[in-house]
Amino acid sequence: MAHQFTTQKTFTKLAASSAVMIVAGLGLAHPAGAATANPSVSASAPQTAVAVPEVLTPITSIDPSAPAPSDPTSVTAVAGDGQATVSWDQYSADEQANISEIDVTDSTGTYSCTVTDPSATSCTIVGLPDGTPITFTVTAVGPGGSSSAVSADAVTPTVTPGAVAPDAPGSITVDPGDTWATITLDAPSNDGGSAVSSYTVTATDDQGSEVGTCTVTPNAAGDPLSCEISGLTPGATYTYAATATNGAGTSTAITSD
Questions:
Q1: Rg of the chain over CA atoms, in angstroms?
Q2: Per-residue pLDDT tens for 221-255?
Q3: Which residues of the chain have pLDDT under 70?
Q4: How far apart are CA 75 and CA 136, in angstroms?
Q5: Tens-digit pLDDT profile for residues 175-198
C-alpha cells in the first residue's frame, strides 16, 4: 500500500516582491499569499519544503554618491556685549553644491545658530552671558554627510562700559491652556546699553506663592520671546511677572493683568 505524505506550505518574503514556496521533488511553486490546499501526494521518501531567504536592502539618509563637505577653514570668533560673531572662509562654488547648511555650536550645546546659505561666511549668536569664555565650532552638513567640527579660539562677551540694567519688557501676553500657559513678551524699549541676554517669567497663585518659571533666550533670527509654564491647576487664577536681564543687571518686573 502506498504511503500518503502531506507537505506543509512555507512562505518567506522577498523584499518588495512576491515570494515563492518551492517544494523539493514536486516542482511546485506557489506565490506568497495564494490560497492553495496542502497537496497529498504519493512518494517513496518524505518531501522537503525549501524556504527562499529574505533579502534586505539597507536604508540610509546619506547619499553615497555625494561627497561629504570639506572642513571649514580660518574659523574665528569675535565677542561683543552678550553676543559673538563666528566667521569662516567661503566655500567654493563646487563645494557649495554639496552643502545644505552650516552649523555653529558652542562646546556645551547651549548656544547655536544655523545658516542655510552655503555661500555664507559668518553667523551671530546672541543672548550670551557676559564674562564667561565660550568656544564655538563650525560644521558643514550636506547630502553626503558632515565635515569635521572646526573650533575657533575661545572668546568672552563683555559688558559695554557704562551699561545699566535694561527697562522692563515692553509688554506681556498670556495665553492660558488647561494646565499650562504660554507667555509672550516684547523687548524693552531701552536695553540699558547692553544687549538683553535673557527674560524670566514667574507665575504666582492667588496666595502669592510661586508656582513656576520659564526663561526666554533671544536669538539673532528674532523669534518670538515666548515660553511655557506647565503644572498649573485648571480654573485657578495666576499672576505672571517678567523681567529682562543684560550684563549689567536685571530690570524691574512687568506683570500680567
A1: 32
A2: 778 999 999 999 999 999 999 999 998 999 999 99
A3: 1-61
A4: 9
A5: 999 999 999 999 999 999 998 999
Do residues 223 and 214 touch, judged by C-beta distance below 8 A? no
Phi then psi for residue 220, to 5 deg, are -70, -20
47 forms bridges with which residues in the sheet?
A: none
Rounded CA separation 137/108 (Å): 11
Q: What is the pLDDT of residue 61?
A: 64
Cβ(78)–Cβ(158) below 8 Å: no
Segments in 70-211 forming alpha helices (H): 93-96
Three-class secondary structure of residue 191 per DSSP: coil
pLDDT at 15: 38
- Contacts by 51-54 with C-beta closer than 8 Å and gap 24+? 51/10, 51/11, 51/12, 51/21, 52/12, 52/14, 52/19, 52/20, 52/21, 52/22, 53/12, 54/12, 54/13, 54/14, 54/15
- Whether the predicted model's global pTM rises above the 0.70 cut: no
Position of cell 550645546? 109
Q: Are 135 and 161 in contact (CB under 8 A)?
A: no
Question: What's the Cα-to-Cα distance from 97 to each of 35, 61, 68, 125, 155, rounded to whole Å?
Answer: 53, 18, 11, 26, 31
